[in-house]
Amino acid sequence: MNTKPVKIKNVTIGGGNRIAVQSMTNTDTADCAATYAQLKALQLAGCDIARVAVSSAAEVEACKCLIGKLDMPLVADIQFDYRLAVACCEIGFDKIRFNPGNIGDESKVRLVVDAAKAHGTPIRVGVNTGSLEKEFARLPPSAALCESALKHVRLLEKFGFYDTVISVKSSDVKTTVDAYRRLSQTVDYPLHVGVTESGADERGIVRSAVGIGALLIDGIGDTVRVSLSGDPVREIEAARLILQEAGVYNDYCQIVSCPTCSRCKYDLKSAVDALKAATAHIKSPVKVAVMGCVVNGPGEARDADFGVAGGGAGKIALFVKGEVVKTIGENEIVPELLALIDKKINGKLK
User: Fold this and answer.
1) Burial class (CB in 10 A: 0-12, 13-18, 19+), 310
2) How far apart (Å, rounded) are the C-alpha atoms in residues 192 and 211?
3) In this structure, are residues 85 and 98 in contact, taking their beta carbons and an 8 Å threshold?
4) What is the pLDDT of residues 308-318, one digit of tens each?
5) Average pLDDT over the chain, rounded to whole?
6) 86: which residues sit within 8 A by CB, 6+ positions away?
7) What is the pLDDT of residues 317-332, one digit of tens each?
8) Are the C-beta atoms of residues 45 and 221 closer than 8 Å to each other?
9) For residues 66 and 38, what is the distance between their CA atoms, to the nearest angstrom?
């Protein structure tokens, strides 16, 4: 989907730019040292934009120690107090996120807009199913999310503000996907996508992957967050995996492997685990296949750059673009594949 660009410090979202990964701190915002440490950990994990909840004047004051300390853009998350939003613009936050419906009357929203204009601060209008106005109660949830977001965006436009990003989230995957699909047909503002309150661990990751992945495959989404309970660094890891498997990011070594059956006569899982560990640092597009047998292996994995397939009696077929080039021993699988990966990355293997 074609969206217009919005620049947040050194990261531009929308306009065909690389999809940015976001997360949010869960430390005590007033604890500057702990919050800075978590922000640094997020940045090292690959976070592009980080959000910090700001709920009091004391937390605004504490955030002054964070501004300008990281290359990563910082977003102030405001719930109800428009004065906090104004103050966050003034101290140098790179973006603010709020729901105009929670701020109060239009005069207060205008004060926030004036501060954002004065300091060049973009605004994300964030609408969740838990914050919908009563006037939209009779609409289907996805339609209500869109109408609420559009109402707030039009208010910002009324005050001459267009440096806007929008999100319409639900904890229900289908509602989330339907809302974003509807919204993407209506506006050209960049969309921040995610499934809110997705949960923890595997369930939260799967719920997020289904919703975010469906939207990314549709071409919807300019920045993403995987909302997980617990350590936010896991959100970055999950988001990158989703972006990779949706075909958005290709800067990694993709390892595919078959589920195995009785035809597999070697320890395929151990080979995959060793290969995964040895290639975790790679930031180049390479596809490697580890297949159980030669019956279907090379043919099924013909789109891989290279791979292996079990041949029985401890012999493993090594193939390139689906063509078997030689037979190797089981203990040679990882060294041989790593050598091919190195040649591919260095342009010695086409």
Assistant:
1) buried
2) 13
3) yes
4) 998 777 799 99
5) 93
6) 111, 112, 115
7) 999 998 999 999 999 9
8) no
9) 11
